[in-house]
Amino acid sequence: MTAVPTSGFSAFALEPFPELQPGDDLAGTVTDVLGRTGTELRDGDIVVVASKAVSIAEKRYVDLASVTPGPKALELSAKTGKPAPLVQLILDSSSEYVLATEKGPIIARHMLGYQLASAGIDCAGTEGAWLLPADPDASARALRDALIAFTGVAVTVVIADSDDRADRRGATVISIGAAGVRPLRTTEHGGKRQEETFTDLIAAAAGIILGQRGRGAPVAILRGIAYESSGEGVAAVLHHRP
Prior knowledge:
This protein is α+β, with helices and mostly antiparallel strands. It has two domains: 10-60 and 134-237, CATH 3.30.1330.100; 61-130, CofE-like fold (Alpha-Beta Complex). The protein is 27% helix and 29% strand. The chain is built from six helices and 13 strands. The chain has helices at residues 26-37, 51-57, 71-80, 84-93, 136-151, 198-207; strands at 10-13, 46-50, 61-63, 94-99, 106-110, 115-117, 122-124, 128-130, 156-165, 168-179, 184-189, 192-197, 219-223. A hairpin with a 6-residue loop joins strand 4 and strand 5. The chain is globular, with a radius of gyration of 18 Å.
């Protein structure tokens, strides 16, 4: 199906947002912030959530002291400067990896099929790390269902994660989970058709707001984007599915 065009949209952070604690009700926290800030969701809004917020809510924390690095992790640690236990977590979470340069970053294919810097693992200070959600699409569905139940508004959820590229410096933002929006859209012009990873475009748009160190805004609302509703998640478009 050819995409319905979008000629313009708005995006804003949901803030101030409290610091999440392991096991917090993410949907309930989002709803509380909506109420405190006088923000009302509208039908068709896309709620983009940083993956780390989901990982915290789902208690995906690992104590690095509990991880014993093997020889390969020690070798990569010496090359990249990353703590050896963290490197071991990356190896344990991935099926293959490459170094973007001799000193990294480590671009790894996660066991779930995503290709991400450090297998999507985030440092939690110097003593711990946050793993990706166990099933990001399921996390997106659960959050979307809860937000609809809380607000009565038909929204879509995309879970976004920062990602380094092997071919250039710096990081971008991609989608790792989605609920309610078809992850691929097809555009057509002059007889040519092109598939676009639409949820990545959504995540990248939100990434201008999300992921800025110290900002403390893990949730963004995108409004006015035309999309096709779908029960498919991001896993549906992966080349290497688990």
